[in-house]
Amino acid sequence: MNRLGIESPRGLVAFAALTGCLVAMAVAALTGAGGVFAAAGLAGCGCELLLHRTAPGLMARLGRLHMGATSRFEFRCVLLLLLLGRLHVTGPIGLAAAMTLVLCLLAGQALHAALTTLIRRRRALAVAARNIDLHRLDISDRPPRRLTEWPGQRILVYELSALLGLTASLTTGDARWVVAALTLAAGSSLITVVALVPYLVRATRRLPGAAEVLAEVDAWLIRHRPRTVLYFSGPRERADQVARWLGPVAALHTPSLVILRERELLEALEPTPLPVLCVPSAAHLSQLDLSGVRVALYPANTGRNIHLLRIPTMQHVFLAPGDGDETADVDPYSKVYDQVWVAGEAGRRRYVRAAVGVEEADIVEIGRPQLDGLRVAGTGHAPAPAPTPLPTVLYAPTRDLPAGEPIVRALLESERPVRVLYRPHPPTGHRSPEDHAAHRRIVALIQAANERRAAAALAANALDNGTFAADALSADALAAEALGGDAVTPDGIGEDPDDALAPHTDATHPDATHTDATHTDTPHAEALRTEAARRRAELTKRIAALDARLRRADADEAMLTRDRAAPDPALLTEAEGLRREWHQAHWAASPPWLHQVIEGDTPTLHSCFDQADLLIGDPSDVVGDFLATLKPYALIVPAGLGEEEFRRQNVMARAAYPLGPGASAMRNLLRPLFDPSLDELRTARREVKEFLLGPATPPSIQRFTDAVDALAEKGEAVVRLRDLHTAPPPGAGRWSITR
Q1: What is the distance between the alpha carbons of residues 708 and 716, in angstroms, rounded to a whole number?
Q2: Which one of 311, 573, 634, 733 is at 20 to 30 Å from 437 when CA atoms are compared?
Q3: Where is the composition biased (Basic and acidic residues) (predicted)?
Q4: Residue pair 711/295 in contact by the 8 Å Cβ criterion
């Protein structure tokens, strides 16, 4: 089902029904069963509409197989004419009129597709931009979306009109109904075509050509003289590779520029205050005046990097990823750069050991600027989340979901209850049928556990209040008490036992005491969660409205280039604040004992890090990022690989609690969550963190900024030396006569 692009059983049923309707229409046309034909056609229209909404991937795949909406429409038009010929309702003149109208309708659709394509191609500027003032370019508005988009739905309207006319003709025996309906459909199609003609003329005559656009961009480059360029080329799915560096580059105190090579990347890029250029053509890129740029940063190794690497006035830097010890991150291509920037000593050793031609002197450790905002356990660098009745375990796999199913089951059934956050990496669960099936089973396990936990919470609330009067617990704490858990302060996890702000005691110990709850009555706690849920819904609407302003759906690339002449700091600040408030409301809206499945972009991974007391994952950048929090983490040991060999191959594993197949070590893994003194790897995590991510001071963003400044100065010196060597000698070009 997933391979077809169908994401839900309802979509599969709609696809099967659509196929059946087409077969039924073909049989009805051959046999002259007009009523069956009309009924099957109307049902097919409903299936088409449902598939457009629930299975857009299937619709796109059918289009690539030349079985798209237009092809299906043409097939049904042929069947309609065949049916009219079999029924003899229209007569020869009516049949000829119907055939003429159908041909006009099909011609109108073909002309509409051709005009839409011509307008779209003509409006594709040689260079698209964001936050760059190109107001002198005379860029006109695009055609309204109702004229150019939703071709499948427009076709359905035409077909529905024809089917209703056919139904009326079959009912009354009057052929004029079907002819009138076809006239209406063909006329609407031709009117749409005529409405597009002025936009085509305007796009052909008024939109600036490549030379004019490049000249205007060059004028902007000369005025602003960016010193640093963040350059990226790749598919839309890899946009996160450049997005993670937008913040650090925006923090530089000198002018910077982002250059993208694919138009789809410009659409996927998050709003940023940085000026952005999208230059698809290598020829156009070579014509831009980038003589003032001294440092070029490359977040990925791609073949199109060569188009900027050939500029000798820049110092070229590869921003090496891979704190996960993956040797694929090191290849001989890296030696084409002037420097390679890594996070810590581990990255340096990785390149030196690989011996791919990168000199050790050209390797610079800058840390991970993106992680500077993470809350580090026990430091108070950022506000800590409120205490929760149960420890939180974040399971964030990036591959091999079937191996994680027994781990999730063990967490849900552990003797000491915990809260589970399941957040798979976005592509995980969609790469293979096995991963997808395992993902659905894990989700089902969590849903069943939530139902049991909710029942336990209700039972706890129904107990005699006098039993817990001395503790004055909230509804959440009552649920945790009924489940055998204790209140947890996340800041205590990962700290030294003597410094823990809220050590976790054994609930079964005679001297155990419960953490005093923030709210002492169940209605008050429930009211707070209800208010948080209401606030989250309100923030969701406000964020959607703000995104609509930042990403105008009614504007195409050319209009956005014209209208986004400068960033709006107020809008960007408002968007950041709203997202921060949304995350606070999200975590406050759910009972702290409730397991959660997080499949989308929100809550963000870093927000989940702040909630988690323990991470379970596999060697990847996800675990590398979590290491910055100094909280405990566990790594899944692949089947057939011993723990010692696993630790030898992966530096991260040296500070991780190993989890073998079947999660046999789950009991020991969870003990430090309730008693920090049992956390034996606290010191090892600090050592591995410094080895992989670099020292905590100075902050990574400062090291990144200093590295850019130092390399820019080196670039200036290289340019001066180059100019000195290429300058003509004194008196060159003059004739001199000596005696």
Answers
A1: 12
A2: 634
A3: 506-525
A4: yes
